[in-house]
Design a protein that fits this description.
heterodimer; A: about 325 residues; alpha+beta; Jelly Rolls; Arc Repressor Mutant, subunit A; four-stranded antiparallel sheet; 10 helices; B: about 300 residues; elongated
Chain lengths: ~325, ~300
């Protein structure tokens, strides 16, 4: 068959049927999922996965010059395979499956690798917006930034944004993206960066016990009538213990369980604790205080962090 | 004798449980097809864990035979089994019998898989200079950053090696888009103007798509209009015809087609973009500023200092 320059061989999404071998001329393939343009010259094969798996073609193929092609139909394949030993069909099927798996893995790996770039751009834009007391960033600017930084296609960036939307990090609202909490985006980016660099759990990721303690603190603050002073809360130990009994699912709130949080100054005791070698009973501390937003942000990060990996590999 | 009769047949074997079908040290490569029974692939080092189990119909060794990829596990029978071995000679004789397009198809499937596997571990970035400029455009101006830290973060984001990125830092330095300084044996980097870096990324993108960068396509009249618009402090709101008349009065060479051009390059925007009925336009100060800066620093952007 022949094609004239500018003619389309098939479009992305068209049902896969034939395989084409380029005899002469050049064609270009473009997919909405990728940023690259594939060029097919003499000897190249076009549409092999669609041909073998009977799946839709994955790119739109246009002749960039007058072309001559050999068209191979599924019947021709069947006819050839019938003349080969049975094991040969298994090998074709194995190679097809392996190529498809490699393609799926590549797409997954692209998204996983692009996440830090997306968070970096979101962190930068949302921090800038926050400085102007705004929580909205331009959707186009995010796409443009990630595309320039990481060379990921628009569709893949949109997929990543949807994952963050499902995790309630942001909300896509047409031309704008509402970033719910710029601090959490920043913490998420820094956590992922730390994990990549040091190959260990980031310090922002809390143990279950630490999360339970902070959960009890948050509930106590929310039920307290005492107002925050410049974002700093104060909770009476008596109230904290009472709420801790319910919020910690049977675990006991002691100064020992609170120690990691006290050492990191996420919580502060109302009286000096010395070097921590000998800890007093928790009842001896009249109150605890700390920055409420820092705790809320950290708890939000700890909610999102474990879910993110699962969503990415799904 | 026709070519169809030249196939060297595969070997069929019956093996007892425990028989080692393939070990990585073996010089012979073959595709193993399990007809009956069960085979297991184990690690060659203690505790010799089972990596996968083969059921009837499964096959291994295709990549080892066709692409010389090493098969690193020991394959043994966990039950009495019947296997078919497609040796190199057998496969070669089979491939010789195939029509050319089918042979090309097999080679293509292998080559594409290989490329995809390699691409999955490589960077996606095709233009590392554009990528670096974008990365640095998000750093605040006139703040000193440790260059080693910047390189590490950039490499973490893009998977570009720090060695390759160093060349791009030099390229930005030559364009005076960044400054480097040394203190106590450490090198520090300062972004001169983040917006200029952003303009530079747009310039590179225009080059990639072989289109001329919009600010460098302006004619004399448009450049005069640009300077004029940039000097207007409070942007008035006017209808399209009013703006055309206003611009024409100042620049007699500018006509209706010029107004269409100015709208295309977004120097004017609707006063209320959310209202489809809005017929008032105002000057898009950000865009005008962008064009002006791109022109003012053209030599830096083009790298012809």
């Amino acid at each position: 068959m022949t094609l004239e320059e500018g003619q389309i061989l098939f479009r992305e999404g068209d049902p896969g049927e034939n395989l084409y071998v380029v005899r002469d001329g050049e064609l270009q393939g473009k997919s909405t999922l990728g940023t690259a343009i594939n060029t097919y010259g003499p000897g190249a094969l076009i549409g092999e996965l669609a041909f073998l798996k009977k799946e839709p073609y994955t790119e739109t193929i246009t002749a960039t010059e007058d072309c001559e092609l050999i068209e191979i139909t599924p019947d021709a394949l069947e006819e050839s395979l019938e003349q080969e030993p049975a094991w040969f069909r298994s090998i074709i099927s194995f190679l097809t499956g392996r190529l498809q798996i490699a393609g799926d893995n590549k797409r997954k790996s692209d998204k996983i690798k692009a996440l830090p770039s997306l968070l970096y751009i979101l962190d930068s834009l949302s921090t800038r917006a926050k400085a102007n007391e705004d929580t909205y960033v331009s959707h186009a600017e995010v796409i443009d930034g990630v595309e320039k930084l990481f060379n990921l296609s628009k569709d893949n960036i949109e997929d990543l944004l949807k994952i963050l939307e499902e995790l309630e990090v942001l909300k896509i609202q047409g031309e704008e993206i509402h970033v719910k909490n710029a601090n959490v985006v920043h913490l998420l980016y820094e956590s992922i960066r730390f994990r990549a660099r040091y190959k260990k759990t980031p310090p922002q990721i809390l143990s279950m016990t630490e999360q339970m303690v902070l959960n009890a603190v948050i509930k106590t603050v929310q039920q307290s009538t005492e107002p925050l002073k410049n974002g700093t809360f104060t909770v009476k130990t008596e109230s904290l213990l009472k709420i801790g009994k319910r919020a910690m699912f049977g675990a006991t709130l002691t100064l020992r369980t609170m120690l990691p949080l006290l050492e990191r100054k996420l919580l502060n005791a109302g009286i000096p604790l010395g070097d921590g070698a000998v800890l007093p009973e928790i009842e001896a501390i009249p109150f605890f205080f700390g920055d409420f937003d820092t705790i809320l942000d950290l708890m939000e990060l700890n909610r999102i962090y474990p879910l993110l990996d699962k969503k990415l590999v799904k | 004798m026709t070519s169809r009769q030249q196939l060297i047949p595969p070997t069929h074997q019956s093996v007892k449980a425990g028989f080692v079908v393939y070990s990585p040290g073996s010089e012979y490569r073959s595709i193993v097809i399990l007809e009956e029974g069960e085979l297991v692939a184990r690690e060659t080092t203690p505790p010799h864990s089972v990596v996968f189990t083969m059921r009837p119909g499964d096959l291994v060794g295709v990549a080892a035979l066709l692409e010389r990829e090493p098969f690193k596990y020991e394959l043994s029978a966990s039950k009495d089994s019947k296997i078919t071995l497609v040796t190199e000679e057998c496969m070669e004789s089979e491939l010789k019998r195939l029509p050319l397009w089918l042979l090309a198809l097999i080679r293509n499937l292998s080559a594409k898989t290989h490329l995809l596997k390699r691409a999955a571990i490589e960077t996606r970035v095709r233009n590392s200079l554009k990528s670096l400029a974008e990365y640095l455009s998000h750093k605040p101006a006139d703040t000193e950053f440790n260059l080693a830290e910047l390189l590490r973060e950039f490499s973490f984001l893009t998977k570009i090696s720090t060695t390759a990125a160093q060349e791009d830092f030099k390229s930005l330095l030559r364009r005076h888009l960044i400054k480097l300084s040394q203190k106590n044996g450490r090198v520090f980097c300062k972004v001169v103007d983040p917006e200029l870096l952003l303009i530079f990324t747009d310039f590179i993108r225009a080059q990639e798509t072989e289109t001329e960068f919009a600010p460098y396509r302006l004619n004399i009249v448009q450049k005069k209009i640009l300077v004029f618009l940039s000097a207007i402090e409070e942007s008035p709101e006017k209808t399209g015809p009013d703006w055309i008349a206003y611009i024409h009065e100042k620049f007699p060479d500018a006509d209706v087609s010029q107004w269409i051009n100015l709208l295309q390059i977004q120097w004017f925007v609707k006063s209320d973009p959310k209202n489809p009925d809005c017929d008032l336009f105002k000057i898009n100060k950000n865009k005008v500023h962008y064009f002006l800066k791109a022109l003012r620093y053209e030599t830096n952007i083009r790298g012809v200092l």
